[in-house]
Amino acid sequence: MLRIENLHVSYGNVEALHGINLEVKEGEIVTLLGANGAGKSTTLNTISGLLKPTKGTIYFKDVEISKLEAHEIVSLGIAQVPEGRRVFSTLTVQENLNLGAFTVLDEKTIQKNLEWIFSLFPRLKERRKQLAGTLSGGEQQMLAIARGLMANPKILLLDEPSLGLAPILVKSIFATIKEINESGVTVLLVEQNARAALKLAHRGYVIEVGNIVLADSSENLLSNPEVRKAYLGG
Amino acid sequence: MELFIQQLTNGLAIGGIYALIALGYTMVYGVMKLINFAHGDLFSIGAYLGLTLLLSLGLVDKIGVLGGILLLMLMVMGLVGIIGIILERVAYRPLRKADRLSAVVSALGASIFFANSLMLIYGAKFRVYPHNILPKMAVDILGMKIPLIRILLLLASFILMTALYLFVQKTKTGTAIRAAAIDQGAAKLMGINVNKIISIVFFIGPALGGAAGIMVGLYYGQINFLMGWLYGLKAFIAAVIGGIGNIPGAMLGGIILGVVESLGAAYVSFAWKDAIAFLVLIIILIVRPTGILGERVAEKV
Predict the structure, then answer these.
(1) Predicted TM-score (pTM) of this structure
(2) Distance of CA A154 to the CA centre of its chain
(3) In this structure, what CATH number is given to the domain that contains residue A124?
(4) From the candidate CATH numbers 1.10.10, 3.40.50, 1.10.3470, 1.20.1070, the one assigned to the domain spanning B2-287
(5) Residue of B169, B190, B196, B299 for testing the chain A interface, max A β-carbons within 10 Å
(6) What are the C-alpha distances in Å from A153 to residues A43, A100, A182, B63, B114?
(7) Which ipTM score applies to this complex?
(8) Hey, are the CB atoms on A90 and B296 less than 8 Å from each other?
(9) Does residue A46 fall inside a structural domain?
(10) Interface of chain B against chain A, CB under 8 Å?
């Protein structure tokens, strides 16, 4: 569904991705693991069109998307839930959700998605008139995911959804991601919380300073001694 | 009491004009974090275009005073709005990735370009709006004669501001404008075409400024190619007083500035009019550095 070939991305003169290859098949949850600064967010932002590659291509359903603008990529069905939630804090929860559906023109689809999202996150329904900035961290993460889903995506890119959340909330967010995937949305999950991510995902990639160093099924990665040492605490 | 009411209504009318111009500053600042220093000159262009169209089309004779002025206003708003879009394309878009100072210098350059173009086209002398367009009527309110034009001006700025407020608060595009002002990157991730939003903002702001230009021409009767400088500065102060980037703040700031200035001119001294405006700015910045409404909800990270 999503295929990245030999992707190079630079910030000015500094190259952050040195030619990575990555594939996500329809229906999968794939996780991209790595330390701070390894290039995880850069990868997602390049898929979303916020950054332009210096070399290499990204295909979505065999259509090249690496030259498209960010807003065109969203309307193809690729939604990103950015790192640090980035909800629109001075807008209400409902307005945030409406913005998530900005590219969806069919009112019925929007209503259907809204109902689905409120069943996934009942808390958001209670707080729909509240300003997003007044929500707790966990609620903001729910809102960020819900907002991404309102775009009616075929693939959802999640950037560190567990960041800064209490373990119990992480568990519940990850359970929701599983539920979202089971409803037919493909997921590319970027995480530092490797253990939780690998338990959820079908396959995983490990990225180190701009290179993919490992690609395997989640079970194999979980038992891989190098991965255990570097990312799972031995 | 008579003096007070006269000055108050006068202040409200001028304040409405300041508010309309201030909206252009604040909307552009909100989305682009740029002070469009050429905005005052777009206001002047509105005043001059209004004069030209008024004299050449003779709309007032053809379809009556109210309809004629209304149509004239819409035409000028459209034209100045288009100039605003072109200004952004030519002077600001190429500098989008440059540091902010470059864009500010570009804005100052655009301002000088516009002011001097007006001078070359229309001459450096004051130009006069025909003074017999609007009937010199006065409306009797509680025994006081308030000029009709003052009431019409107030009404016009009120309608324009309400329309803008509803557009920004209630429509999908308006919500997208607010989103782009909060976080452009996140707005792009929602599928919002931020370039288009910037063009819309650069249409609406100058269109309102252009409307204010005609209003000044009709109210004071004379216009000058440099008037955009002082009006622009005052409106910028109004935007800062209200909290720059905040739309209701610009409206409030404009009205406050107009009223304070007008009352100050009457009760203190006319010569101190501008000094009083700047004094208000200084006091507000000391007491509330973010402006009256310029405070955002704390963000949780």
Answers:
(1) 0.91
(2) 12
(3) 3.40.50.300
(4) 1.10.3470
(5) B190
(6) 18, 10, 14, 53, 46
(7) 0.94
(8) yes
(9) yes
(10) 172, 175-176, 178-179, 182-183, 185-194, 296-301
